[in-house]
């Protein structure tokens, strides 16, 4: 019993916690020690039985058990000693291997440096080897590498390209040398070759990460045409296809050589960044390839997307930081066309790349950096005056295309899907079928898009009329011209503007709220000229980039300014665009250079070439080619004073005028009156105010009419807007944002003087350089410009029908081409709510596929005139312009027909269209297909 107690005490010490757990509450709380010990003894006996005999504290086995344990301990000690000795030896071995590795590495670097330089070439007197290797650094922009000959041969043989351009050769060399690279080359510069060519000379797979499926599809198409095996793995790739690709990649990873591989070796695998971010099975497949030495490089196209500071930030690009982690030894090539310094810094950090070293003096460590001038000297920029009517624009474009690019491929970029269709139809009709057009926009079915792309590549379709949807990934070398049908609101990313406007109306929220919720959409305006123009001349041959612009387009841009003010704070992007468009003197290249150096901190040097200084004029844009006699710089302080005085009066009277209206008013056109809302809570319909027409006495307010043509007046208004003498106010409705001209903060600087003061030269002076009209300029220099800007100019000054208009006389067509609802993301700007209603009607009509031929419009007018007792005749009974029904639908035609009918009793439609009186209204009722014309 005594022994048992001792054992129990020991056992309690060792197993205190267990015992505690086993006692019931009653037993633990009991004062009966005997009972507790009894319980413990029971438990100890049970656990001893369960344990092995050697460890049981059992008097009969304790001696042999200790001996056994001691023996085991000795064995373990000796084993540990052995392991320690081995560790020591392995440590030594490790040090030796590291030392040897370093030696091999050093040797390899030395060998690479030497072997990269082809001895035979390096001895060539014209190109000494010193050019490639200088003081421990390498100049990759040379052809003295051992692979140089083969690179060129494969480039010619596979891609049919004879010579490298820009920094292509340097990038290929650095790539062959296994370096990490950042390469910045302009759109169309030829970035693809920089990874496609080295890939053909190296074994293994090149992984290409690209943002757009269309881009990827296009690249794969090209590579397959060249007989190179390229695949893509997307969400849309079928299971069978994916399985096949995976098994081929797995076979490549497992094989020591090419024998036994199923199918041809995959040289390129294209994926989107989402694939890298989301697919573990894909990344582990890549790891297998990398471990087998079969992943030769990773290419990140549009690499600026990794940076939040760039305008194209794409969150999944950020996740590419994992690449360096997963594949520390696989070289990365980052490609971009636009990478200002702050974006570059971000890019290097995100992709975990080392600091950059210059590709012409690259030290052994670091990311090799190449950049090519952004300036593409084969692109000839022109801003052409845009005729005021839709048909005039079509005529001007048709003439330009037939005169200069009759058999060439081209693109016409339009603001809206609707525009693409009307322009495509217009060009085809106007040219009598000589211009074969196609339409491309977001709503075109994918299959139709692919067919069009193919027909365009084959040359069956010559001119694609497209929205910006036809952009990235479109790589046709011989695009000889890119026309911009209009400048204006283009891209409010991620938001359908119609949805946005409906939101405003339905939810009664402010624009600010909607836009904030939409994550700061970025607005790209200038890139309109650069991105889309990048589609031209990709083969390096001369190509034209023409922007059709008329001052009234400024109103569209103003709405953009308005948006930008609300979302990102005011900046000058849009004003810069306007300045660009109305500048008739400064070289376009220099304008771009200045813009980018200010907005994106891009060095001016990016705009130079080997032959030309960045600050030199290009010599081949419209402004460089224009002879001095085609321009005229004038002091326009007096007309400016008049415009500002009128706008001040209009504002005082709570009036609202658009730019076009103001240009009319100050010239004494447009009926001499403006609309104002008198009384009520606000200016819109339903806000209690009454609309009223207020007449203007120009003599009293402005000392007479402005003595400038309409176009000049509008240009002056734009200038005054840019200089802050004029401003604008915005009025949003359910369907549009209307922009009205108001006096700006600087107006007083001019208007505080009297007319006499201004005439005598007092105060601030305003000067504007105008283009002389086509005929005047032609008379002076006796020649016409290549890009057709004079033709456009002539079309502009003579109107759609090619007839000379008298100054101040108004064609109804002048207002026809009001901005249209932009279903691509732009927005429309209308003079007032009536116009909005008219446009709504117009769209409804379009939807119902109702067609108003000139004859049925005429017959309706005739019916009406007969029932009301006034006469209507159509001259020669010929079909009137297709614009007239459109005008009627939009309510623009109203004063013309009935007004002149009332005044004259009888008129021809064509004549009537040129006369305006404010006495009549037209009620449109599209539902029952009736056009009502009423006299007041
Ligand atoms: N050295 C060269 N000489 C002539 N043509 C070339 C050369 N390099 C590339 N090209 C051609 O230039 C066109 C544009 O090349 P690529 O698509 O690689 O441009 P990119 O720089 O990727 O442009 P983007 O940024 O618009 O995609 C292609 O048709 C290509 O065949």
Automatic annotation (TrEMBL):
Domain (Helicase C-terminal): residue spans on this chain: 396-582
Alphabetical keyword list: ATP-binding, Coiled coil, DNA-binding, Helicase, Hydrolase, Isomerase, Metal-binding, Nucleotide-binding, Nucleus
Leading EC class: isomerase
Polar residues: compositionally biased ranges: 112-122, 903-925
Residue ranges of the region described as Disordered: 109-133, 771-827, 897-936
Entries under Pfam families matching the protein: DEAD (PF00270), Helicase_C (PF00271), RecQ_Zn_bind (PF16124)
Catalysed reaction, written as an equation: Couples ATP hydrolysis with the unwinding of duplex DNA by translocating in the 3'-5' direction; ATP + H2O = ADP + phosphate + H(+)
Protein name listed in UniProt: ATP-dependent DNA helicase
Lineage of the species this protein comes from: Eukaryota, Fungi, Dikarya, Basidiomycota, Agaricomycotina
């Amino acid at each position: 019993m005594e022994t048992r107690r001792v054992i129990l005490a020991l056992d309690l010490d060792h197993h205190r916690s267990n015992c505690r757990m086993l006692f019931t509450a009653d037993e633990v709380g009991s004062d009966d020690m005997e009972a507790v010990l009894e319980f413990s003894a029971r438990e100890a006996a049970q656990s001893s039985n369960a344990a092995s005999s050697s460890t049981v504290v059992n008097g009969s086995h304790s001696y042999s058990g200790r001996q056994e344990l001691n023996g085991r301990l000795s064995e373990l000690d000796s084993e540990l000693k052995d392991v320690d000795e081995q560790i020591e030896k392995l440590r030594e071995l490790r040090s030796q291997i590291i030392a040897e590795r370093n030696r091999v590495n050093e040797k390899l670097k030395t060998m690479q440096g030497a072997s990269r330089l082809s001895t035979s070439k390096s001895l060539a007197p014209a190109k000494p080897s010193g050019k490639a290797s200088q003081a421990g650094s390498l100049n990759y922009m040379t052809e003295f590498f051992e692979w140089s000959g083969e690179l060129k041969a494969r480039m010619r043989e596979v891609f049919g390209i004879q010579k490298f351009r820009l920094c292509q050769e340097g990038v290929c060399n650095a790539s062959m040398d296994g370096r990490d690279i950042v390469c910045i080359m302009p759109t169309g510069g030829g970035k693809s070759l920089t990874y496609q060519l080295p890939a053909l000379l190296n074994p293994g797979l090149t992984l290409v990460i690209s943002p757009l499926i269309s881009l990827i599809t296009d690249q794969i198409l090209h590579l397959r045409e060249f007989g190179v095996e390229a695949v893509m793995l997307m969400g849309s790739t079928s299971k069978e296809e994916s399985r096949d690709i995976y098994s081929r990649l797995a076979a490549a990873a497992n094989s020591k050589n090419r024998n036994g591989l199923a199918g041809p070796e995959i040289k390129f695998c294209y994926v989107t960044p989402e694939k890298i971010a989301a697919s573990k099975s894909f990344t582990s497949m890549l790891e297998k390839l990398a471990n087998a030495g079969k992943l030769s490089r990773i290419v990140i196209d549009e690499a600026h997307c990794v940076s939040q500071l760039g305008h194209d930030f794409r969150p999944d690009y950020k996740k590419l930081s994992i690449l360096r982690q997963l594949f520390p030894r696989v070289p990365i090539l980052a490609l971009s066309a636009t990478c200002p310094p702050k974006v570059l810094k971000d890019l290097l950090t995100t992709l975990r790349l080392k600091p950059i070293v210059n590709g012409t003096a690259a030290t052994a460590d670091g990311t090799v950096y190449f950049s090519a001038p952004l300036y593409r000297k084969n692109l000839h920029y022109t801003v052409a005056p845009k005729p005021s009517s839709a048909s005039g624009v079509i005529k001007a474009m048709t003439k330009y295309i037939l005169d200069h690019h009759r058999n060439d491929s081209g693109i016409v970029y339009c603001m809206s899907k609707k525009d693409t269709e009307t322009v495509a139809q217009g060009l085809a009709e106007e040219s009598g079928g000589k211009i074969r057009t196609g339409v491309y926009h977001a709503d075109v079915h994918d299959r139709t898009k692919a067919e069009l792309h193919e027909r365009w590549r084959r040359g069956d379709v010559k001119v694609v009329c497209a929205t910006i949807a036809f952009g990235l990934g479109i790589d046709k070398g011989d695009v000889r011209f890119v026309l911009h049908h209009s400048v204006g609101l283009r891209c409010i990313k991620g938001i359908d503007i119609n949805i946005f406007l409906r939101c405003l109306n339905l939810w009664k929220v402010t624009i600010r709220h909607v836009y904030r919720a939409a994550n700061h959409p970025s607005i790209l305006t200038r890139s309109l000229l650069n991105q889309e123009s990048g589609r031209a001349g990709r083969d390096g041959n001369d190509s034209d980039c023409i922007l059709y612009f008329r001052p009234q387009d400024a109103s569209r841009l103003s709405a953009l300014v308005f948006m930008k003010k609300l979302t990102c704070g005011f900046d000058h992007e849009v004003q810069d665009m306007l300045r660009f468009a109305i500048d008739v003197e400064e070289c376009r290249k220099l304008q771009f250079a200045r813009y980018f150096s200010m907005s994106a901190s891009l060095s001016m040097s990016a705009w130079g070439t080997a032959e030309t200084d960045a600050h030199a004029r290009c010599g081949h844009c419209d402004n460089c080619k224009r002879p001095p006699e085609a321009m005229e710089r004038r002091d326009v302080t007096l007309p400016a004073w008049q415009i500002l005085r009128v706008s001040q009066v209009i504002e005082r009277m709570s009036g609202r005028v658009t730019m076009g209206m103001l240009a009319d008013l100050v010239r004494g056109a447009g009926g001499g009156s403006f609309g104002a809302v008198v009384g009520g809570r606000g200016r819109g319909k339903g806000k209690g105010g009454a609309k009223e027409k207020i007449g203007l006495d120009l003599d009293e307010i402005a000392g007479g009419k402005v003595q400038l043509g309409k176009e000049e007046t509008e240009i002056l208004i734009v200038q005054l807007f840019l200089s802050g003498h004029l401003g604008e106010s915005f009025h949003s409705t359910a369907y549009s944002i209307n922009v009205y001209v108001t006096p700006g903060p600087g107006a007083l600087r001019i208007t505080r003087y009297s007319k006499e003061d201004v005439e005598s030269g007092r105060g601030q002076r305003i000067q504007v350089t105008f283009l002389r009209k086509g005929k005047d300029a032609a008379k002076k220099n006796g020649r016409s410009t290549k890009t057709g800007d004079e033709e456009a100019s002539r079309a502009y000054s003579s109107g759609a029908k090619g007839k000379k208009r008298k100054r101040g006389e108004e064609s109804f067509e002048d207002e026809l081409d009001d901005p249209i609802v932009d279903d691509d993301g732009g927005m429309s700007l209308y003079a007032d709510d009536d116009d909005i209603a008219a446009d709504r009607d117009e769209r409804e009509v379009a939807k119902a596929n109702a067609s108003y031929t000139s004859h049925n419009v005429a017959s309706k007018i005739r019916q009406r005139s007969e029932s009301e007792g006034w006469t209507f005749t159509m001259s020669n009974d010929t079909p009137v312009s297709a614009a007239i029904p459109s005008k009627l639908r939009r309510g623009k035609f109203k004063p013309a027909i009935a007004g002149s009918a009332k005044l004259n009793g009888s008129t021809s439609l064509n004549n009537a269209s040129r006369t305006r009186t404010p006495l009549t209204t037209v009620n449109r009722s599209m539902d029952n297909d009736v056009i009502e014309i009423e006299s007041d």
